[in-house]
Amino acid sequence: MTPIDTSAAPPLLELSGVRAGYGSIEVLHGVNLAVPAGSVVALLGPNGAGKTTTLGVACGLIEPTAGKVLMAGRDVTGVAPEELVRRGVVTIPEGRGIFPNLTVRENLQMVTYGGARLADVEATAYERFPRLGERRKQLAGTMSGGEQQMLAMARGLASNPALLFLDELSMGLAPLVVEELYGIVAQIARSGVSILVIEQFARTVLGVADYAAIMLNGLVRSVGRPADIEDELSAAYLGGQKP
Amino acid sequence: MLTIILTGISLAAIYAIAASGLVVTYTTTGTFNFAHGAIGMLAAYLYRQATASTDFGGWGWPVWLGLIFVVLFAAPAFGVVVERGVMRRLDGASEVVKVVVTVSLLLALVGLAVWQWPSVSSDPEKFLVGTSWEKFRFGDTTVTGHQIVTVCVALAVAIGLRLLLFRTRLGVAMRAVVDDRNLVRLNGAKPHRLAMFSWALGFSLAAVSGVLVAPERGLNQVQLTLLVVNAYAAAVVGRLRSLPMTFVGALVLGIGQSLAATKLIGVNIGWFSLADLQYAVSPVLLFFAMLFLPSERLRAGAAKRVRESWRLPSLRTAAWGALGFVVAVVAATDLIGADPDRAGLVTALSFALVALSLVPLTGMAGQISLAQMSFFGVGALIMSWIGDDGHTVAGLIVAIAVSAVVGGLVALPALRLTGLYLALGTAAFSLFMTRMVFKQTRLMPGEQVAVPGLDLGFATFRTNQAQITLLAIVFAAVGVFVIWLRGSSFGRRLTAMKDSPVACATLGLDLTRTKIAVFALSAAIAGLSGALVNRSVANSDFELLASMNVTMLAVVGGVGAVSGVLFGGLLLGVINKLGDVLFASNAVGIFEFVKIAVVDLQKVAPGFIGIGLGANPSGAATDIADTYRPVAESRPALSLAVGGPALAWVLARSGTINKWTFVAVLAVMVFGVIPAVPILLRPIPGGRASAAGAFAIASIVVTGAIDWETLTASNGMRVLWMLIACGAVARGVMAIHGQFPHTGAAPQPSPDLVGIDRPLDRSDAIEAERVLGLTEGVLRGAP
Ligand SMILES: Nc1ncnc2c1ncn2[C@@H]1O[C@H](COP(=O)(O)OP(=O)(O)OP(=O)(O)O)[C@@H](O)[C@H]1O
Ligand SMILES: [Mg+2]
Q1: Domain shared by B530 and B678, yes or no
Q2: Which of B6, B481, B532, B548 is the most exposed place for a label (fewest CB within 10 A)?
Q3: Shortest CA distance to B31 belongs to which of B129, B135, B102?
Q4: Directed axis angle between helix B544-557 and helix B562-573, to 10°?
């Protein structure tokens, strides 16, 4: 197993010893994770492992009770999510990351709070997803699941991030749509953006990922190249806890 | 006819403006601002203050400057202050707390306005548009310039809001917050900024409506506030969400009111006069709008963050507490020489009993009511009819029964409603009762009735002393009953209903009867309190603001606990009555340099107490109880707590010490010494505990030796000195003892968390055994 090589430059995102939870229930018990600059890291694990919670801590929505969040070497623990967005950290949350009662265009208008101009956002979104352009006046909640996820991805594309977090893009979507979305992820990655992708099903993501991390019961159990990690993965899903 | 409709439309315009402000704030922040009407009222007063000529005590500003100042500066600035200072802390609080906090804001603002502008007259001719107050004639209809201005402003508001919400990024973001607050943050916008803007906008709209309505209705703090409260109905027609439907609701309200005002004069159904229906259109509309509201879907999901927590005393503790309470109250009043001076305590106990009616309803079942004083009124009314010629016992029984039935009826529409809607529905009921029912000459001639005192045959309750004894006993008995109820299967059903309606539904628990029963019970207790009032009562005693006051102080005191509502009720009584007695006649002394007569402070105080609730949703009683809990568990401290005051009482009764000295000794004992006893008894090295104890006893003796009666002539000064003495004694004891531990026990974590964030220990096991009613030692594994 090759550990992530972090000797060259500080990783763009680094969580060290992060503990966090909801109310009095601790979910993360000391998570360590790094996303090197320019790479795609896949965070895998069964339901309830704490992947979404980890992402919540990374994007600033959940304040950790212990541990640190570093971005490009700087401590950003406790910085508000809206601040992080302005510094180029974009998160597409679990479920559909859209506002169902706003139109497509209004959804894109919200993206401009991150600093982009509306004209640019619209241009990027409609160019990449012509279907959104046709539906700009439609309420986002009335579109199909795939179209909604495209709208969510459009935010990721248009706000020109340095660090992108994606939580279960594939949830509830047909394989073909998933493939299309991951095609875009690969394309974004090629432009030098560092990406942390969360997935349940390893196959969908291992093709794009440079590294994969497996999470179990609130801890990152192992990290490695996708090829090395396959066996462990099946053990994690089938056998649960590894000794 | 056309004139009537036009008048209705101009009225509708005002309601539309007010209601749209409510809706905007509610949708974007999730808090329904009950104080909306009070903001409008305050704005009208401020506007009048700014624009009235200096001869009339105003600042003499031109109209345009006054408008800009009030609508665009003062109101939004106040909105921002309220959001930052109060509302932001309410994130995650229960609906009851949110309702009570905005209700408190309403009461505080009304108090503030009454204090600041005890009486001002406005010259309606000059109020808004200077002298251009012409009437325009079209054929045989007339409209005033003011009406035209009003309608134009409403149209401008409608168009402006539409543009704001759909054409600007800010408006889009405000709508986005409704969908998903976290996603708004992930887009880079700040929800707090949006909330702040939305409060500012809501306050501005309230101000516009207040400034527009005042010239038509004149300046009166309570009436102006309630006038804008009518707009609640329009907002509910819009389901608190849709602005166009809100405007429709306002139109129905305005035209209905205008029609009722002209067409229903002299119309009667039987003896029931409809003349006053014009004032009751709003509650009636609200009521019907609610009947057609779709049932709220039960939402599962993460259980709400529970911030309130109460301990349930055992029945034995409750019984001892009840006995102690009665003895203490009777002994204390016995020291007050003249019977009329005891009136304050009668009022206080009477309020406490009404507040007690909220323990099952709000404390256990989590339902809010803003109509308790209406049930009180029903009880009082029935007692006055039936009890008039000596049948007071029958009167009492019928009063309780009828109140219970009325309460059950009110619960019917409430069955489908929860939280906020229930608060609105009961508020509507309360308005309907004061505006229609208690106004009927057949029911309450001159809007006033005399309620006779109870006559049991062997005992009559006519004097204040007798009345206090009676009320104390009734309170104690009902209190014990309520505590018993909490432990019964009915009480567990109520709590289940409060904690998770979803779980109840899935378990197949039918809550309909439970809900009706708890409403009936609560109304019966309030009615009982009304039947025992033993004085002349007026319609104004039952008005919405009075009910709001009771609910607020009950929640502030701690509505889950009998001691909490006692505290709240007494507070209300003290603020209403005792304060007058204590301070009004001699507001010399310290309160004079602050130049606020204490009597005025009383008007504002309760509202501000309520606003502070956000910090501690369990109420004040819990805090107090935490401080004194160790006392109850330590025998020496308990004997001092019982024996000390008893001894002082005997000394005072026999004239050895005077009454002010008695009060001072009691204060020093209760606040300075007794809480320290359990700490003094803890073994520490150095033997300083006995020195500290000696100091404590010496302090009590010295306090008793001072003649507080003649020390100073002002009651305010006496109270101040007593507070200083208490503080000094407490600090002295600690200082000598050598350590300064926290007086209270460490804050008890919620019992629900035992085993999760602290281990289960022996005391938990004992507690669990007691709660579950197991024989001792089962859980501890004792033989
Ligand atoms: N809002 C919440 N309140 C309380 N507990 C929560 C909350 N959200 C998540 N949890 C708990 O935290 C744990 C981890 O949840 P998380 O959503 O991080 O898992 P996950 O790995 O993303 O799972 P999935 O693959 O199903 O999305 C779970 O046990 C869950 O019950
Ligand atoms: Mg997840």
Answers
A1: no
A2: B481
A3: B102
A4: 130
Check whether B752 has a pLDDT greater than 50. no
Question: What DSSP element (H or E) covers B176?
Answer: helix B169-179
- Among residues A237, A112, A15, which one has the least CA distance to residue B173? A112
- Average pLDDT, stretch A159-188? 87
In a shared domain, residues B189 and B230: yes
Q: What class, spelled out in words, does domain A13-88+161-236 have in CATH?
A: alpha beta
Task: Tell me the one-letter amino acid at B555.
Answer: V
Burial class (CB in 10 A: 0-12, 13-18, 19+), B466: middle
H or E element, residue A197:
strand A194-199
Contact A155 B753 (CB under 8 A): no
Q: Which domain holds residue B250?
A: 2-292
Same domain, B198 and B288: yes
Distance between CA A209 and CA B158 in Å, rounded?
52
| Euclidean distance between CA atoms B120 and B116, whole angstroms | 10
Same domain, B377 and B436: yes
Q: How confident is the model at residue B332 (pLDDT cuts 50, 70, 90)?
A: confident
Query: Which residue among A25, A27, A237 has the greatest number of ligand 1 atoms within 8 angstroms of its CB, and so is best to mutate?
Result: A27
Of A99, A111, A112, the CB nearest to B180: A99
Inter-chain Cβ pairs, chain A and chain B, closer than 8 A:
70
Gap between the Cα atoms of B76 and B89, Å rounded? 19
What are A134-148's pLDDT values in tens digits? Answer: 998 999 989 988 899
Q: How far is CA B261 from the centre of its chain?
A: 32
pLDDT of residue A123: 92
Please tell me whether residues B549 and B639 are part of one structural domain: no
> Quick one: B329 and B257 in the same domain?
no
Q: What is the mean pLDDT of residues B448-458?
A: 81
Number of domains in chain B: 4
Nearest Cα to B674, choosing from B629, B741, B705?
B629
The structure tokens listed for B224 are 């102006």
Does residue B717 form part of some domain?
A: yes
- The structure tokens 């602005």 sit at B243
Please tell me the predicted confidence (pLDDT) of residue B389.
74
- What ipTM describes this predicted complex? 0.91
The pair of structure tokens assigned to B66 is 């006054």
The DSSP secondary-structure symbol of B289 reads: H
| Residue from A149, A113, A150 nearest A128 by CA | A150
